[in-house]
Amino acid sequence: MKKICFLLFVACAFISCEDTKTSTPTSDEVQKTEATKTTKKETKKKEKEIFITTENVLDYMIDYGKENPETRVRIVTDFGNIDIELYEETPYHRANFIMLTKRDYFAGTQFHRVVKDFVIQGGNSDGWNIAKKRRKIGKYLLPPDTKKGFKHDRGVISMPSGELDHVYKMASPFEFFIVQKKGGTHHLNKEYTAFGKVIAGMDVVDEIANQETDKGEWPKKNIMIKKVEILK
Predict the structure, then answer these.
(1) DSSP string covering 174-230, please?
(2) What whole-number distance in Å separates Cα of residue 142 and Cα of residue 172?
(3) Cα(88)–Cα(102) distance, rounded to whole angstroms?
(4) pLDDT on residue 169
C-alpha cells in the first residue's frame, strides 16, 4: 500500500512540473513575432505618410508639426550648401518643409528659376521622378500666413503663389524662393509667406543667382538640389 501511494505521489509531482514548465519559442514563432513588429512599424509609417489634400492639410500639418519640431535644414547644391532656419511662427509652412525634407522630396529637384538681383526659385523639375513624388505625397495648397511681421529681406525663404492665388492667394507647397536682392523685395511682403531665413551660405545663393539663364529665366545649365537634410 505504501508503495502504491509513493508511486501516485511521484506521478502527481511529475504532472505538476509539466504543467508549470515554460516552453521555449520555436524559430517559426520568433519569425512570426518579428514579422508582426515589422508590420506594426510599417503601418505606423504609412499612417504618417497619408495622402495630403487641401481639405486635410491644416489638421495634418498641425499634428506633423507637433511630432517634428525641427527648425534647421541644409540645402545641398552643386555650388555648395545653404543653411536655413525656419520660423516657428509660421507653423504650417515650417511643418510642410520639414515633411518634404523627411520624405526626400527635394532630392533631384532644381533651382529652375533664377533672376539676378531678385530671387532664386527651387523645388521643381521637369523630370518624371519628381512628378511621381508629388502624386504620392498629395495634391494640396497652403493658406497664406503673412501677418507675423516677417519681411522679404535679403536671405529670406518664401513660397510662391499657387494655382488658386487669384481666389485665396494660397501657396504651392512644393516650391520655394530665396530673396537674393540686396535691400530685399518688400513689395512681396503681403503677397507671399516668408517662413525662414538663410543663416549660412548666402555666397552660394549669390553664385546661383549669377548663372546664365534663357529668356524664361531657366538656367542654361541645370542647378541641381542634391538633397535637403535636417540639421541637428
Answers:
(1) T-EEEE-STT--GGGTTTS-EEEEEEE-HHHHHHHHTS-B-TTS-BSS--EEEEEEE
(2) 7
(3) 18
(4) 60
**How far apart, in whole angstroms, are the C-alpha atoms of residue 137 and residue 102?**
12
Regions of the chain with pLDDT less than 70? 1-48, 162-169
Residues whose CB is less than 8 angstroms from the CB of residue 120 and which lie 6 or more positions away in sequence, other chains included? 111, 113, 114, 177, 178, 180, 205, 208, 209
Domain 52-230 has CATH 3.90.190.20: no
- Long-range CB pairs of 184-189 (<8 Å, 24+ gap) are 184/151, 184/152, 184/153, 184/154, 184/156, 185/118, 185/119, 185/152, 186/151, 186/152, 186/153, 188/152, 188/158, 189/146, 189/151, 189/152
For position 121, what pLDDT does the model report?
Answer: 97
Task: Tell me what pLDDT residue 160 has.
Answer: 82
Q: What are the tens digits of pLDDT across the range 43-91?
A: 444 445 789 998 999 999 999 999 999 999 999 999 999 999 999 999 9
Q: What is the DSSP letter of 8?
A: H
Burial degree of 118 (CB within 10 A; 0-12, 13-18, 19+): middle
pTM: 0.78
Cα(187)–Cα(210) distance, integer angstroms: 22
The residues with which 75 forms a beta bridge, in sequence order, are 82, 228
